[in-house]
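tool_call predict_complex ligand=nicotinamide-adenine-dinucleotide
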Amino acid sequence: MSYAPFEYLTTASKNVQCLQRGRALYVRNGATATLYAPQMPRISKLSRSVKDRVALVTGAAAGMGRATAHLFADEGAKVVVTDVSDGPVSAVVDEIMAAGGTAIGFVLDVTDADRIEHVVAEAANHFGVIDHLINNAGVSRFVAIDDPRYEAQWTESFEVLLTAQTRTIRAALPHLRQSDAARIVNIASTEGLGATRYGSPYTAAKHGVIGLTKSLAVELGREGITVNCVCPGPINTAMTAEIDEQSKATYAKRRTALGRYGDPEEVAHATLNFCLPASRYMTGAVLPVDGGLLIKNA
Ligand SMILES: NC(=O)c1ccc[n+]([C@@H]2O[C@H](COP(=O)([O-])OP(=O)(O)OC[C@H]3O[C@@H](n4cnc5c(N)ncnc54)[C@H](O)[C@@H]3O)[C@@H](O)[C@H]2O)c1
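tool_result ok
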């Protein structure tokens, strides 16, 4: 079907009114109204919904992990809530269910390789697939290079922040391969792109997360599995709770463009964006969610 151009119809007859609504063109002449639907195909075809997708989140009992679990559930995803202790995991599952969402919880210490295999298999068995893996669990250990505790803190940081991500990815991969929107999102940090004094174990591990993300994006790209990385800046969670409010405010005003700490939910939305079916051409990306910390010179 074809239709006369808008300009032609408006000038051809004073009786004819043209109303353009969305992509349809209505021509009204006296009492009759005709809809001329143009043949142009919809340009937007990709979905921005994670409804019914299965998302496994590590460290999901608090902070950004909890916010991510909630956000995905709010968007209709089925969420696998995992963290080190039973009580907080159950609490998040209960919160999600009470809000009308779908979730299942597992105790999972990400330094336990056997437990990772078990939990991933159980979750996939329960929901049938795993579409999205969000590697969020983290600890922050700051220690001077000549401190006697250095080696222990280095080992723990790498176990939790980096090695665990490789293990969850390896365990989840067969299930991700069953998905037509397979997404891995690794949570790094602005410490993955810069450094803070005494943070070398954390900073080195977070730089490693970015390297891991890029490498696996290349390795898994041909399979349509995307691997991306979110780098939060200063966010109000338990990890930063020991810093007093005045120091936080001073730091945020001096160092970030937005002049404030971020909220966990603001980071969760970045993670969600990476998981959308529509985000299928984004991979190997390293996204700061830092209120402009990294771009602010003065
Ligand atoms: N808060 C920040 O300012 C900030 C900034 C940059 C990056 N990050 C990163 O964001 C992620 C989330 O941190 P958060 O700020 O929400 O902190 P948080 O302390 O509120 O939450 C971290 C969660 O990880 C869990 N966890 C710790 N060790 C674990 C283990 N071995 N196995 C399983 N779960 C474990 C904790 O129990 C907790 O629920 C971490 O990877 C962290 O490094 C945080």
